[in-house]
Amino acid sequence: MKSKLLLIFPLIITGMHAQLKPLTYNDGSQKLQGLITANVQKNQSAVLILPAWMGIDDEAKQAALDLEKQGYAAFIADIYGEGNLPTNAKEAAAIATFYKTDYQAYQHRIKLALEALIATGVNRDKIAVIGYCFGGTGALEAARAPLHVSGVVCIHGGLAKDAKRSNGPIATKVLVEHPAADASVSAADLNQLLEEMNQGKADWQLITYAQAKHTFTNPKSADYNEVMAKRAWQHTLLFLKEIL
């Protein structure tokens, strides 16, 4: 019996370590509740995760846990707020379109999440932003804002922005992980982004993944490409290791 208990005990500890904890913050009267890893320490390097258009999902949660294993504190932002979580793709498209159109509102919600993360005691000068899909667009908006972060990773994000918006300086490092067969991103969108990065004198890089469709990193998506997803994750970790 004693030996069995000894075998079980490490498993319990591992499960506890893998839990994500709710972290509540506010935008005025709007309650926001993100999820943060359990390993937060003072002056730790950290990653802010911006989820896809359905809100905090399993892909964002797994990314947070995987980043925790790498020694980073990770916080998944709540962009929509309590009571505003979409229940289907149509609702998700509507609310995501609102924030893409009102980019300042999106930047504001990202900034609030960043402030909530900083308030936990992590190193404010060693924070990166990564985002998936709608969150990938948010990662670019964090760079455009500009928010004080060391770098951003846009993972199969929307790359376009309103042509009426002027291109400003991009002070943070930028990594764009782009699926080659992403039907939601046109060649014009991609060229516009590259022009923006160059005009902003950004330290940027673009990695394009062959035979990869839009949500190629999400195991629950029909677009999932395991080989390219694993490569993209390694590229993300290499980038984070450099900047953090």
Short description:
This protein is an alpha/beta fold and 244 residues long. Helices cover 41% and strands 20% of the residues.
The H/E string reads: HEEEHEHHEHEEHEH
> Order of strands across the biggest sheet?
1-2-4-3-5-6-7-8
Round the Cα radius of gyration to an integer and report it.
18 Å
Please state the structural category.
alpha/beta
Q: Portion of residues in helices? A: 40-55%
Largest sheet: 8 strands, mixed
| Strand coverage percent | 15-25%
Residue stretches low in confidence (pLDDT < 50, at least 5 long) are 1-17
Q: Termini distance?
A: 46 Å
What features would you highlight for this structure?
244 residues, eight-stranded mixed sheet, 7 helices, 8 strands
How does this structure look, described?
With 244 residues, the chain is α/β, with parallel strands linked by helices. Helix content is 41%, strand content 20%. The chain is built from seven helices and eight strands; from the N terminus they run αβββαβααβαββαβα. It has helices at 2-17, 58-69, 89-101, 103-118, 134-144, 187-199, 226-243, and strands at 20-27, 30-37, 46-50, 73-76, 127-132, 151-155, 173-179, 204-209. Strands 1-2-4-3-5-6-7-8 form an eight-stranded mixed beta sheet, with helices on both faces. α5 (134-144) links the parallel β5 and β6. α3 crosses α4.
